[in-house]
Amino acid sequence: MSMNTQGRPTGTGTASAAATGSSLLPNEPLLFEIGDTEHSGVDLPDVAVSGDFLGGFERKSPLSLAGLTEPEAMRHYVRLSRLNYSIDSGMYPLGSCTMKHNPRLNEKMARLPGFADIHPLQPVSTVKGALELMSELAHWLMTLTNTAAVCLTPKAGAHGEMAGMMAIRAAHQATRQNHRNVVLVPESAHGTNPATAAFLGYTVKAIPARTDGTVDVEAVKAALGSDIAAIMLTNPNTCGLFEPDIIDIAKAVHDAGAYFYCDGANFNAIMGVVRPGDLGIDAMHINLHKTFSTPHGGGGPGAGPVVLSEALAPFAPVPFVRDGELVEHPEGTHLGRVTAFNGQMGMYVRALTYMLSHGGDGLAQAAKDAVLNANYVKARLGDVFSVPFAEAGFCMHEALFDDSFLEGSGVTTLDFAKALIDEGYHPMTMYFPLVVHGAMLIEPTESESRQTLDHFCETMLDLAADAKAGNAERFTAAPTRAPRRRLDETRAARQPKLKWEAPQPLPQAAE
Ligand SMILES: *Cc1c(COP(=O)(O)O)cnc(C)c1O
Q1: So what CATH class is 108-353?
Q2: pLDDT tens for residues 187-238?
Q3: Ligand 1 centroid vs 157 CA: distance in angstroms?
Q4: Which residues line ligand 1 (CB under 6 A)?
């Protein structure tokens, strides 16, 4: 055993192995395992304290923080970051998530001190520039969607859904329609839609999909009645298809006295091309982190502004920006806050930078390129991979496949996704939408070049050929080249270990 400069023993197992310097270990120990609580990473002079300054509240036990030097802490995080797959290290074909490139220009703007360093409790008169930026972002969002109002504050798509549905509920309450307690949700919906409706106390009624993967307009009409508060529909839908009857659906919903909530997570397919307000929607969240290229994933920050139609504008949650001013106490019946302060400023800066650097025509081009790329993948894989709803022809921004081509191979969608990790790719979205058995949902986004798409498609075709040739082992054993093998994902979700417990010292042998 050797001693490091602070007299700490090193080289006694995995924990301290990282502290001694190997950056090739796949098992990165926790900070608490690298450092110990007895030492500090900095040399502080002993302080001569006499008397009781804290009125008896001084700490009685050690703080129990790992005492690391700056390089030790830095290396820990850099090593961890290398275990991560990211859009900056490779293609990220995760359907419904729009993992597009985050232009570095966005980052540069977000770091301008005038935006990065403001404090939410600063006097409003000192943050006029930030308010102007929020006002301009609001203008772009309302223009792109042709809607009357926008609440910027929700911190994720699901949060925007909640804010929008709360506005719908408030609008019904204002007209004494409290008995409307049912929300219609198509079977193909993202899980957040029924969860939002249920969270707000609504009963969820499922609308079946037609055999072509789109919402059955007749089923919607049949379900409408005086108890329906709203429909929550995604367009383009989660099967990657544009809902052809959306205008008829909107009309039927309005005729029945209900509102039309649109899940806007797939706006990347139509931004600058279709304005959802023209289709008759009343509320729609926009995932800035998906459509407008602000970094997301792994619990990172999101921003889910919700746009509202003329009918719902009077019920927008506060605060909102109107004519360049922050409105916190509007006249009328507005909802209260859905977040503390004003939302994710850094994401606003990034999203507006993306909009301004593209312009309206550039955004439309990005949407069209995203659709083109998805159709390229669909065309290249479509002969080998099974395509549900093939009669729909072209897809929008994501290509949907299912696992029927794997039948009899002993390989499942999950195995296939794990094998993709060994090929250096993040897996596609699996088993979603739920209406498709063994779904594989691929969203290449507009960021990827023809070469990247070709390499990805060739990898997918190679895997498919191997699965069909009976080489199930390559799949069921995968991943073998990742830092971790197969994980017990169910147990990880059900029994997460969120707190590090110090190992108990071994009992001393009796003298
Ligand atoms: C991502 C997504 C959501 C939820 O958005 P978050 O920002 O993750 O909360 C809702 N619906 C669809 C279709 C999505 O893809």
Answers
A1: alpha beta
A2: 999 999 999 999 999 999 999 989 999 999 999 999 999 999 999 999 999 9
A3: 5
A4: 96, 156-158, 190, 192, 234, 238, 263, 265, 287, 302, 304
